[in-house]
Design goal:
With 92 residues, this protein is mostly helical. It has six helices and no strands. It has one domain. The protein is globular and about 35 Å long. It binds zinc ion (ZN) (2 copies).
């Protein structure tokens, strides 16, 4: 994947820290990932995103990390998968 494409893909991929809680991502507006309050409140994944690409930056459905991105950033995504795992576990 070209660097520019990868950057664009990041901007359209949901920030997992933001999804957990808006306060969890310390980068705020500087974050390279998407911060969407609507998607955060919506548990459903975006069909377009999963099947090809979603051109709507304000899409109210979730844009999870995709396999292509995963393979080019395995270490980073390992961290995300681990975080998702912890978030999905009942607390306590
Ligand atoms: Zn973020
Ligand atoms: Zn979408």
């Amino acid at each position: 994947m070209a660097a520019a494409e990868e950057d664009a893909a990041k901007k359209d991929t949901d920030c997992v820290y933001f999804l957990a809680s808006p306060l969890t991502c310390k980068k705020g507006n500087d974050c390279e990932f998407r911060h969407s309050e609507n998607a955060r409140m919506n548990p459903r994944d975006c069909w377009y995103w999963l099947h090809s690409k979603c051109l709507n930056r304000d899409c109210a459905f979730r844009h999870p990390v995709r396999k292509a991105f995963y393979f080019s950033n395995p270490a980073f995504c390992e961290e995300i998968v681990t975080l998702h795992y912890h978030l999905s576990q009942p607390s306590g």
